[in-house]
Amino acid sequence: MITVKNLYKAFDGNPVLKNISTTFEPGKTNLIIGRSGSGKTVLLKSILGLFEIDKGEIWFDNRNLVLMGEKERKILRREIGMVFQGGALFDSVSVEGNVRFPLDMFTTMSNIEKQKRVEFCLDHVNIEKIAFKLSPSEISGGMQKRVAIARAIALNPKYLFCDEPNSGLDPETATVIDQLIQALTKEFQMTTIINTHDMNSVIEIGESVLFISKGEKEWEGTKHEILNSGCQKLDDFIFANKLYTQMKKGQ
Amino acid sequence: MGFFFHIGRYFLMLKRVFARPEKHKIYIRQLFLEIDNLGVNSVWIVLIISIFIGGIMTIQFANAMENPLYPNGLVGLGTRDTLLLEFSSTILALIMAGKVGSNITSEIGTMRVTEQIDSLEIMGVNSASYLILPKIVAVVLIFPFLYILSVFFGLLGGLITGPLVNVISAPDYIEGIQWLFHPYYVFFSIIKCLFFGFLVSSVPAYFGYYVQGGALEVGKASTKAVVNTNILILFFDLILTRLLLT
Q: Of A101, B50, B201, B220, which has the fewest CB atoms closer than 10 Å, so is most exposed?
């Protein structure tokens, strides 16, 4: 479980996150939604410790990230998997090498054990063996995202972070990625936080949804409650797409 | 103000670069890859440039020393000392700053803008050390070897060109390159190579590591890295020459 309490972050005196408090539960896909520039990525990177926050607390179960030293943070980070918006796969190594990298770096596994783990992870995200030796530039965007997910779960993380995991993908592939993240979250009981502005993802996998606008928490609930939230800013965000207006009207 | 900011951040980066590596075995593997990528792949350009410059210097020395009072061997001596003292260390470092330096900046800069560096940090890897340390060690190790190759092929260039264009005979040239040889010149230049190797790898790495933006900014960072490295090479050349040679 990840708990954020009264988080405040400013850049050059301009507040980007204002007093955000929330809880992200394990075994659930927790979504952070909001317009571009609303502070989603800053919130995600603050939770990850990539940005130092100005005020507040960030708890990973019973460990407060804010009070951790560099050494403790390094240990914590080995329990974190991250899927970046662009995949962020290492160009210089193959698909297999990307998934193997954290195992080489942080485990004492034998080569055979590592190979088994790599195959296990890549199988889980439906990457065929023929693609194992290819370089990231030789595979499609959807496959790159799946490889990024495989790399993120290689060390069996307790916490999984995804920054707009289906951006730039066609709707069908985006749904596959969403479902894959949800399935892995359930299977490994991870605390998963997904940053998105894609309403399809919300409807597909939004078990817990946090809506932020201009750095403030505006609404929190589930995908079942979102169409009738009573939050004007959230309605403006959702119903910018006419499809969801029609959904609300039951058409 | 910006100058001091960059100096401070450069040294903070170096502090992270020289932190204890997470896993030595992986760093050693990276080191060999970098020696191949940055060093061995540069051998051809060093050979080609050195042969041509050796030949050109021989012709120019021969022209400048046409006076019959000068012994013919001076052409060989002049070529040798220019190669030993300046060309094969400093000029080569300037050339390598263009080749290796821009390669380092663009590689690390691209990793930064495509979030690969963030990805390493989130895994708990010291990205500065993992990406930069093997490059610095590789370039510092390979530079003295490139220097020796450059001197040898520069002299060879003179030996081929001099008799070919009929400005000096091969025996005169060979005799000249053996005159008044100071082994200290080689030691001095190897010290310079170690300094320059460090600059050629660490300064471009700094510009790549802290780049922000996209492809355009990576390109600009590469240019800045090469320009600043060149200035620093010449600055340290002046200081080292003053300290070690005069």
A: B220
* Torsion angle (degrees, nearest 10) of CA B92, B95, B98, B99: -80
Of A5, A24, A18, nearest in space to A80 by CA: A24
What's the CA gap between B48 and A110, in Å, rounded?
45
Considering Cα of B103, then B104, then B106, then B107, what sign does the dihedral take? positive
> Closest-CA residue in chain B for A46?
B122
Determine whether the interchain pair A82/B121 forms a contact, defined as Cβ–Cβ distance below 8 Å.
no
Cα of B205 to nearest chain A Cα, Å? 17
Q: Of B7, B215, B16, nearest to B120 (Cα)?
A: B16
Q: What is the pLDDT of residues A79-109, one digit of tens each?
A: 999 998 888 999 889 999 999 999 998 888 8
pLDDT in tens, B189-212: 999 999 999 999 999 999 999 999
Q: How confident is the model at residue A229 (pLDDT cuts 50, 70, 90)?
A: confident
Q: Rounded distance, CA B233 to CA A168, Å?
A: 44
Question: Collapsing DSSP states into helix, strand and coil, what is residue A186?
Answer: helix
pLDDT for A114 beyond 90: yes
Element (H, E) at A31: strand A29-33
Fill in the amino acid letter for B122: I
pLDDT digits (tens, 9 = 90+) for A128-175: 889 999 999 999 888 898 899 899 989 889 999 999 888 777 888 788
Closest chain B residue to A157, measured at CA? B123
Which of A244, A208, A243, A204 lies closest to A225, judged by CA?
A: A208
For residue A165, which residues of chain B lie inside 8 Å, CB to CB?
A: none
Domains defined for chain A, CATH in brackets? 2-248 (3.40.50.300)
Nearest chain B CA: its distance from A28 CA (Å): 21
Q: How many residues does chain B have?
A: 246
Contacts of residue A194, Cβ cutoff 8 Å, sequence gap at least 6: A29, A30, A31, A32, A161, A162, A165, A181, A201, A205
User: Cβ–Cβ of B22/A105 closer than 8 Å?
Assistant: yes
Of B189, B170, B162, B4, give the one whose Cα is nearest residue B82: B189
- Residue pair A208/A32 in contact (Cβ under 8 Å)? The answer is no
